[in-house]
Amino acid sequence: MKILLTGGTGYIGSHTAVELIKAGHEVEILDNLFNSKITVLDDIEAIAGVKPKFYEVDLLDKEGLDAVFAEGQYDLVMHFAGLKAVGESVEKPLKYYENNIGGTVNLLECMKKYGVKKIVFSSSATVYGNQDGVKLSEEMPVGVGITNPYGQTKFMIEQILKDLVVSDPEFEVAILRYFNPVGAHESGLIGEDPNDIPNNLMPIIMKVATGEIPELSIYGDDYDTPDGTGMRDFVHVVDLAKGHVATMGGLRPGVVVYNLGTGKATSVMEMVKMFEAESGKELPYKIVARRAGDLAKIYADPSKAENELGWKAEHTIEDAMRDTIKYLNHVRG
Ligand code: NAD
Ligand code: UFG
To answer: Is the model's pTM score more than 0.85?
Structure first.
């Protein structure tokens, strides 16, 4: 298939590009390079043997987007592009609604115009809202207790896609709810290296390891979990990428929804200890107050993806730590 990846030079998109190329698909990438670097294309080529055609286009640029589709003749779009900093979304909600919702609407309009009717969308476990400590499965309610505009955009885009299918039943939509992506490609060539101060645990751990951030602040050790720190379902980014390839087998007219997670929750403190074990270095940290909006334990029931797509996360957190350290050594020399 000929596939357009919006946001394809980003963290999850670049790993998915590699897996799609390896599976024999033709990949093209559209990205405004707001949160990624063009050199990622060379890294994808080094790993997968093919350099994807690239368009530096913003999803808000309707004319630019139209030109990409006029040329592309795509069979399928995988839509990764979006802003994802939860804290920033609280401060700049309009920027998030404009970019994530506006960008998606422009994309869908173009897809409709050019008759491209298959889309895989990067959603998030955040749509499950404030359901805490229970294995989250796809049929559970979504949209209640979402604490930030970023999460709202994911919920709203899911709704937009569902409405689109009602209006045009030929559309084949897959909504993928990612849990907590971690790790890097085993080559160490691609991974996550945010330009700004990161929000997520693993990129912060990386910056503490390199000394760019003096210490990790652990947000609370008084949760109702075995060691008191928060627990999440950390899924290796290469498993996530393979989940996208598997999802193509599950597309059919209408909307399908899959959780992509491991089904296991690991605590923040366990992550620190595992990083120390893999790197052989002590990671300075301090316990601080809980972060607003955080829950104690979020983890997936991933059985639907396994039963229907034959997809299952295979990498361990140790793999993710090892690959992250390899990537860290690559980008920091
Ligand atoms: P990322 O920031 O590394 O990649 C997103 C890419 O989209 C970036 O390269 C950015 O430059 C591009 N982009 C943003 N707005 C754009 C626009 N208007 N036009 C064109 N390009 C644009 O993020 P990621 O971690 O790879 O996440 C990919 C998707 O998965 C996002 O939609 C994100 O919300 C979702 N997601 C991520 C996580 C996570 O923890 N990483 C969890 C759940 C869901
Ligand atoms: N944490 C710390 N210190 C930090 C950063 C994080 O202790 O400096 C803790 C958090 O309190 C939480 C855990 O590490 O317990 C994971 O936090 P992240 O910010 O890495 O991830 P979240 O689970 O909060 O959020 C992630 C994605 C969102 C997505 C959400 C869905 O970043 O995009 O999962 O549940 F919406």
So the answer is: yes
Residue 27 contacts by C-beta under 8 Å, 6 or more apart in sequence? Answer: 3, 5, 8, 17, 20, 21, 50, 52
11 is catalytic: no
Report the distance separating Cα 97 and Cα 275, nearest Å. 35
Alpha-carbon distance of 207 to 211, in angstroms, equals: 6
Residue 246 CA, ligand 2 centroid: distance in Å: 26
- What residues contact 115, with CB distance under 8 A and at least 6 apart? none
- Counting Cα atoms < 13 Å in the Cβ hemisphere of 225 gives 24
Type of residue found at 209: A
The 10s digit of each residue's pLDDT in 68-116 is 999 999 999 999 999 999 999 999 999 999 999 999 999 999 999 999 9
Candidate of 200, 216, 222 to mutate for ligand 2, largest count of ligand atoms within 8 Å of Cβ: 200
